Amino acid sequence: MKKIMILSTILVIGFGLTSCGGTSENEFDTSKTITVYTRDTSSGTRAGFMSGIDFKEAAEDNSVLVDGFVTKDNTGILTAMITDEYGIGYISLASLNNTVKGLLFEGVEPNIVNVMNNTYELKRPFNYVLRADGDFDSDEEEQIAKAFIAFIGTIDGADIIADKGAIPLDSTETWDDIKANHSICSGDNSSVTIKFGGSDSIEKIAKALTEAFVPKCGDFVPEHDHTGSSDGFKRTQGSEKDGDSAKHIGFASRPFKDTEQGQDGTQGQLAWDAIVAIVHLNNHLNDVTAEDLKNIFSGTYSKWEDITE
Amino acid sequence: MNSIKHKGDSIILTQKKNKKEIIDSVVRLLFLITTILSASFIILIIIFISIKGIVPFVTDNNGIGRVDIITFLTGRVWLTGTAFQSNLYSVGFIIINTLYIAFLALMISMPIGVLTALFIAKVAPKKIAEFLRTVVELLASIPSIVYGLFGSGVILVFVYNLAEAFNIQSKGGNSVMATVLVLALMTLPTITAISEVSIRSVGKDIELGSLALGATKTQTNFKVILTSAKSGIFASAILGIGRALGEATAVSLVAGNAKSGPSLGIFDITSTLTSTMLEGLKETTGIDYDIRFSVGIILMIVILITNLILNFIKRKVGNVDVK
Predict the structure, then answer these.
(1) DSSP readout, A81-138?
(2) Level-2 CATH architecture, domain A32-123+274-306
(3) Which chain B residues are within 8 Å of A68, Cβ to Cβ?
(4) What are A126-177's pLDDT values in tens digits?
(5) ipTM
(6) Residues of B in contact with A70 (CB under 8 A)
(7) Taking the model in full, what pTM does it have?
């Protein structure tokens, strides 16, 4: 019994010492290996980040990434960067706080002002697309859909978008200022169903927007079916616009492609989603370029000293 | 039914007896219905998982192509190629990771759990034992996400610093070791509670007999009581390993979710069948979604085989067998 007691005391003290020893060193050692953190292949943030650093093939393919990367969710990457001195990851700008270091991208500081004035490039647009004029089943549907788009551009809509973590575009009017232009909303629309689809990254924002807008516009019935950005155009003005899954309003969490240019005035942007590369506070790195990040995530740079500012 | 009728024949039938028999059979029917209900859920779940999980192997997955079952079972990379466009999934290394982690976790929690159980059941004074029993029961009822939060907040930091002290650069503490520690913590209360019950139920006569023969208390505890409670202790190991194999939330927060392997070094990142199933489940579609059900089938088979083996060993080891 005595032997066991002594042994266990030694073990406990040993563990205690080792755990203290680690935290006291604060020197950043650039010869250490970079630990890469990423979201999993189904993440919209990952798609946005990878296309932002010109590494599109990594959006849904793990094999082009550096060996031994760690997969975590948004919060997981954020908290990992508090502990892991030699890690690098990316999160949506809305979740950035001062427990980690948000890196400048191409010399531009990641903040809302720089996203809005279009200098911060690591971002993706949230776009909408309506059915073409006159291509609605009824006049009511068309007017409600257009009223909804108008609502997105108001201060009320912007508040909801910001609340869901994205960065809304500038707005000057409230819904009360413009609702006179949308007389359809003063009547009872409870028999009208408006179908929303497209990007699933925008699903939460779209749902929050309709939730707020329904009581303002005669209690119409919103129907959400978000399946991915490419369905946004396809099901409103593209090949599936008359199919069973046709939508009134579609969303895309990327710029519309050349093949997705619809009728003038039916497409537009509702918000920005900005992504920021983050490292531990002790890291000496302050500024990265798209090429640096690509080299880090592809494994060309394996140690911190490989990156020259 | 037959035996009752038979008994009824031999005993004089009265009105009263008949009424009792009816109540008897009604109650029996009630028991049967509840049993069928609870058992059918298991069958329903198995059927549902199997139907969904078999899809990637038998259909061409909307043009992507069938998943090859041999590659699936033996491969060393979770997904080769682009997600949603590739059928090259495999879980071979994840099966090894899962078993390895569960085994290591049990290696830590078994000795600690059994010794704690022995202390609570035989050594500690009554009041302290009562208190400790409540603590253990409380630990067992803590939801796994709480263990996961504790793991990502405390254990990851601890493992990261520990690795640094050995001059090893770990990936933010996400590692086999962190996963094993979290799972050991989680299985500990289960093992302790069940071992404690089995230790307490060891016959007083065996214990007294040992003491009467001149064995000390410690000798009796280790050589007589523990060996007599072997069967129950084994049962606790079976339940413990079940929890270790099946835990998803806590594991996915500390494992690092490696996409290739197997990971045998204790500071390497790893992944388990459950963490692989959970990851991206809410965001993914198509084959990438269906394949998670296939992983579910594999997990059920792994758990079944592990349980059968442990049950076999348990039967071999036997019950009371004092050396």
Answers:
(1) HHH-TTEEEEEEGGG--TTSEEPEETTB--SHHHHHTT---SEEEEEEEEPPTT-SSS
(2) 3-Layer(aba) Sandwich (3.40)
(3) 171, 258, 268-269
(4) 999 999 988 888 888 999 999 999 999 999 999 999 888 788 888 888 999 9
(5) 0.76
(6) 171-172, 174, 256-258, 269
(7) 0.76
